[in-house]
């Protein structure tokens, strides 16, 4: 027989938010631009900025995740 599952077990709630996806898209675009750049200093600056966008996205996702867990 089947087992009873809680809502959290059945539904996989995405941690992505519209803002975090936008931040990740910016990071991706910077990575793509860096991949065709010849100037090593510019590459480093773009990749550093991309990492910052990813960190912002992760923070946004963490906050969204925490707010969902307090709602249940």
What is the structure about, briefly put?
By secondary structure, this protein is mainly α.
Could you explain how this protein is built, in words?
This protein is mainly α and 72 residues long. It has helices spanning 7-10, 18-35, 40-71. Helix 2 (18-35) runs antiparallel to helix 3 (40-71). It is elongated and about 50 Å long.
What helical percentage do the residues reach?
over 70%
Distance from N terminus to C terminus (CA atoms, Å) equals 27 Å
Question: Regions with pLDDT < 50 over 5+ consecutive residues?
Answer: 5-11
Helix-strand pattern, N to C?
HHH
Overall mean pLDDT score? 84
Structural class assignment: mainly alpha
What is the overall silhouette?
A: elongated
Rg on CA atoms, Å: 18 Å
Largest sheet report: none
Secondary structure layout:
Elements lengths: L6 H4 L7 H18 L4 H32 L1
Helix pairs in contact: 2-3
List the main descriptive attributes of the protein structure presented here:
72 residues, mainly alpha, elongated
């Amino acid at each position: 027989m089947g087992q009873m599952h809680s809502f959290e077990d059945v539904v996989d709630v995405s941690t992505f938010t519209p803002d975090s996806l936008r931040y990740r898209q910016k990071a991706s675009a910077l990575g793509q631009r860096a991949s065709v750049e010849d100037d090593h200093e510019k590459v480093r600056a773009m990749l550093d900025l991309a990492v910052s966008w990813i960190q912002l996205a992760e923070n946004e996702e963490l906050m969204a995740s925490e707010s969902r867990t307090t709602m249940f």
